[in-house]
Design brief:
Layout (H helix, E strand, L loop, with lengths): L3 E5 L5 H11 L3 E6 L4 H13 L3 E6 L5 H12 L4 E6 L14 H26 L3 E8 L10 H21 L4 E8 L6 H6 L1 H4 L10 H13 L8 E4 L7
Parallel strand pairs: 1-2, 1-4, 2-3, 4-5, 5-6, 6-7
Helix pairs in contact: 1-8, 3-4, 4-5
Length: 239
């Protein structure tokens, strides 16, 4: 019997695609977003259930330590945790002069600190088997103009993932970090970057369902050939 999967950041786009994919493969999915997104979260889980899958909405703020501890404790009661995906975006654009200390701190909390909390609790409950996947971005590899806060948070998350991989790998837990290099088919991209979104017509942006397939394949890998870092981009993306 397959265990549970926790999707932290189960919003529109990749998060929802991940929830659908793991549920389709027979896992019970715990879909996680903040309380203010409860309506959308419930709709996603209802959709999965109506399609023959199994999913539970778990409103929680991954930046809050006690909430993360409680989330994992509750999920563990239902059985083993097979996979945890940390998929919080935190993408913002501010010139350095407009980047307030509050913005910088909040993005760090979402992008790095929350990843640490999720990784730590996953390690506690998985013990000696499972997969932890952290979603990164182009900003995980290089800082861009206007992305000081976002890049530093994603750099930090990558470091957390590397440290966990080196510590947990020998114990049997597969830790992977993905570099999503390009725009994803997402309502935010459609609204804020319409010219980029038009590239969808020629497969020029990332399809979240295809990314979800890649994540699931990471989870299936045998320990004799684990991938730690995987980069995914549309065929026309420069790199």
């Amino acid at each position: 019997m397959k265990g549970s999967v926790i999707i932290i950041g189960a919003g529109p786009g990749l998060g929802s695609s991940l929830a659908r994919k793991f549920a389709k493969e027979g896992h019970h999915v715990f879909a996680v977003r903040r309380e203010r997104h409860s309506k959308e979260l419930n709709s996603l889980c209802d959709e999965i259930t109506e399609s023959g899958g199994s999913a539970t909405a778990k409103p929680s703020d991954a930046r809050e330590e006690e909430q993360v501890i409680s989330l994992f404790s509750e999920v563990a009661k239902s059985g083993p945790i097979d996979c945890v995906v940390f998929n919080i975006g935190a993408n913002v654009f501010f010139s350095i002069e407009e980047t307030t200390s509050r913005v910088f701190r909040k993005i760090w909390e979402m992008g790095t600190f929350a990843g640490f909390l999720v990784g730590r609790e996953a390690a506690k409950h998985m013990k000696d088997k499972g997969t932890i996947i952290f979603t990164g971005a182009t900003a995980s590899m290089r800082g861009g103009s206007g992305f000081a806060a976002f890049s530093s948070a994603k750099f930090g998350l990558r470091a957390v993932a590397q440290s966990l991989a080196r510590e947990l790998g020998p114990k049997g837990i597969h830790v992977a970090h993905t570099v999503i290099d390009g725009a994803i088919d997402h309502p935010w991209i459609k609204e804020n970057f319409p010219d980029i979104y038009k590239l969808k017509e020629v497969d020029g942006i990332l399809n979240p369902d295809d990314i979800a397939e890649a994540y699931y394949n990471l989870h299936l890998q045998e320990k004799t050939a684990w991938t730690h870092e995987l980069d995914l981009r549309p065929y026309m993306e420069k790199f």
